[in-house]
Design brief:
Elements lengths: L1 H12 L12 H11 L5 H13 L5 H6 L2 H7 L6 H17 L2 H4 L4 H10 L5 H11 L9 H10 L8 H11 L4 H17 L21
Helix pairs in contact: 1-12, 2-3, 2-6, 2-9, 5-6, 8-9, 10-12
This protein binds a DNA duplex (13 and 12 nucleotides) through helix 2, helix 3, helix 6, helix 9 and helix 12.
Length: 213
DNA sequence: CGCCAGGGCCTCA
DNA sequence: TGAGGCCATGGC
């Protein structure tokens, strides 16, 4: 079923080419973006990333040395800016002690554990970093994933993050490219049809969804 | 104007 | 572990 839905999404929406990057330090930019986009629309995040990029701040040492309040002002558009400024500092502290080239050598489990130690990085942000920055296979679960697949009837919406993730891991190949594309397609589908107020009549997978049966 | 957006922490039970 | 409050901007 999961593969069928994936095929339908891919056919209808096409390849997504997710996680746009503007600067010359894509991994760090994705790590920052994953934090900045927490419960925030990507549009608001883009402005914040541009600010950081223009000020040459996609750089571990520079984030560590800049004043926290000043950093907060630069990322203001992304919302929760005081919290997120601290989070950027904390993740840079981790990256100072464990450079990206070192982290790349770790297996997914160890990498995830390290990331989750950073206050302000939870499961979804950690997994986004692992999948999109490090290109290692882990399925990213977000609010859209739960919404779509609980409406379809494949999972309960009360399921914990880890359980939902386990469901996908159990039923899909352990493939970073697949996980990357699937998550991007899920976001696309949630925006187009499976919104808070869903457009079920026109939905491209309504035949598979218990909501319309 | 209210709602929501590519969450996570803290507190309290 | 789970529910509720809090963090905050900007687009619609």
């Amino acid at each position: 079923m999961l593969e069928e839905i994936y095929s339908t999404f891919l056919e209808k929406y096409g390849k997504q080419e997710w996680w746009p990057v503007i600067g010359d330090n894509p991994k760090l930019e994705i790590i920052f973006g994953a934090i900045l986009t927490q419960n925030t629309s990507w549009k608001n995040v883009e402005k914040a990333i541009s600010q950081l990029s223009e000020n040459k701040l996609i750089d571990v040492d520079k984030i560590l040395s800049i004043d926290t309040d000043e950093l907060a002002q630069l990322i203001k558009s992304s919302g929760y800016y005081n919290q997120k400024a601290k989070k950027l500092k904390r993740v840079c502290k981790l990256l100072k002690e464990n450079p990206i080239e070192e982290l790349e050598k770790l297996d997914v489990k160890r990498l995830r554990k390290l990331l989750l130690k950073v206050k302000g990085i939870g499961p979804e942000t950690a997994d986004s970093i692992i999948l999109y920055a490090f290109e290692k296979p882990i399925f990213v679960v977000d609010a859209y994933t739960k919404r779509i697949f609980s409406r379809i009837g494949l999972i309960s919406k009360a399921l914990s993050y880890e359980k939902v993730q386990g469901f996908f891991h159990d039923n899909l190949d352990n493939n970073a490219v697949l996980f990357n594309e699937y998550h991007a397609l899920i976001v696309q589908h949630a925006k187009q049809y499976c919104r808070t107020k869903p457009l079920c009549k026109e939905c491209i997978i309504k035949e598979k969804c218990k909501r319309l049966l």
